């Protein structure tokens, strides 16, 4: 078992490029990781990493070992997962990554129920609005609200479709007037989602499927750009401009009169989805299966979009 443990530490350190990150992923101390790597290097009689003050990279010996080490750890985990699936309940540590606003609003209220159902699974939850590739961050499951790329080396379990709406506060709408066409947004204050200076144009298509118009792309500007949906929601309610957010996130404020859904004859495109992402090798993990089977239908129910008034 020591050799498997040493190989697992080696694989995680190589994948994450850091002994500290590998320690966090494996619930070890950095010193324990260093000692296991040193023990493996002593056994193979070769250094496995080139170390610097900032990061680690594989040495030629490490490059020669990494492929076989990954295969051995994967086969061991798959076999262990299958045996555990036959013999007992899910257990162990499960690292989950989710967007900040989504995690606080929809994921957090379900955590206690999951713990009651699976008390032997210890959730390690990281909330971060940047996309976290499980292969690079060490997350076992990543929840994402996004349009996924066509080529993705992960299992993507769909949970819900998330249409987006163009919304604005009644006060701001009264001040500038209601737009009747997406092109008008280029002259209005708009609150953009994304990294500062890198927000993408908004795209719209007619709700009328028989319209000859396909997709319009509109470049917008405004006083706020953020990668956090709750901040943009607050800014819109406070009257700073128009913004595009998932319908499930804004529908309660629309029903309460704090926001108005505009340009309803146009659909923000493309629709985005809510997905649970995990490595194909995690299919046999009882903890990952339990997570997806528990949270999937409950999140789907929580994200049901009511018809806009």
UniProtKB/TrEMBL annotation:
Residue ranges constituting the HTH lysR-type domain according to the UniProt record: 1-59
Domain of life: Bacteria
Stretches that traverse the bilayer: none
Annotated GO MF terms: DNA-binding transcription factor activity; sequence-specific DNA binding
Pfam families for this protein: HTH_1 (PF00126), LysR_substrate (PF03466)
PROSITE patterns xrefs: HTH_LYSR
GO biological-process terms attached to the record: DNA-templated transcription
Alphabetic keyword roster: DNA-binding, Transcription, Transcription regulation
CDD domains in the cross-refs: PBP2_CrgA_like (cd08422)
InterPro entries: LysR-type_TF_proteobact-type, LysR_HTH_N, LysR_subst-bd, WH-like_DNA-bd_sf, WH_DNA-bd_sf
Stated family: Belongs to the LysR transcriptional regulatory family.
Name of this protein: LysR family transcriptional regulator
Source species of the chain: Roseateles saccharophilus (Pseudomonas saccharophila)
